[in-house]
Design goal:
Bound molecules: zinc ion
Structural class: alpha/beta
Low-confidence stretches: 7-19
Mean pLDDT: 84
Largest sheet: 4 strands, mixed
Shape: globular
Oligomer: single chain
Radius of gyration: 16 Å
């Protein structure tokens, strides 16, 4: 009943093979359904973020729906491999915010505002000493400040477009996301 069908959305700008579920979750039915929904939502969000010019993104980002390594992590972005990881175990509302958050990082790297040189991370060409070792310092990193400040509004714009495109119904949105 809560399954979003792939055929409901034409995924044209990314290969569907780029979206996959981790092997460890393959026998868990609830996780499988959710992962499949998250994969469709993430693929659609990626296309919408580009089509609507909400973010500047390359067309070769890979989306991976998988458990993140740390219990409290919701997602990750691996700049070198251009991989967005989204953990399907959170609420759909939180998941979409995470997808948008990680794509903000993808934009930061794509535009060169954020980069790695050796072991040093640069923000606008200035080396960062903040390693984000505590939650508080992590939240103070400028690229995280930006990602957290943009994620909710981007997620809301993506949800509205998903409703407009009939990828999800208004009923689904009201049930899972609220109003
Ligand atoms: Zn982040």
């Amino acid at each position: 009943m809560s399954v979003i069908k792939k055929s409901d959305y034409r995924v044209t700008s990314i290969k569907t093979s780029a979206v996959y579920v981790s092997a460890a979750s393959k026998n868990d039915k609830a996780i499988k359904t959710r992962s499949s929904n998250v994969a469709v939502l993430a693929a659609a969000a990626y296309q919408i973020l580009r089509d609507e010019k909400l973010l500047v993104l390359s067309d070769d980002v890979i989306i991976r729906v998988a458990k993140t390594k740390k219990v409290n992590n919701k997602g990750a972005y691996y700049a070198e491999a251009k991989v967005v990881v989204v953990d399907p175990r959170w609420s759909y509302e939180s998941i979409m915010q995470t997808i948008c958050h990680e794509f903000v990082h993808a934009e930061q790297y794509y535009e060169g505002r954020l980069k790695w040189e050796g072991n040093t991370q640069f923000w606008n060409d200035i080396p960062s000493r903040n390693k984000g070792t505590t939650y508080s310092t992590y939240r103070q990193m400028p690229w995280e400040v930006e990602a957290f400040s943009r994620q909710d509004s981007l997620a809301e714009q993506v949800w509205q477009k998903l409703i407009a495109l009939n990828v999800i119904s208004l009923e689904w949105y009201q049930t899972y996301i609220g109003q």
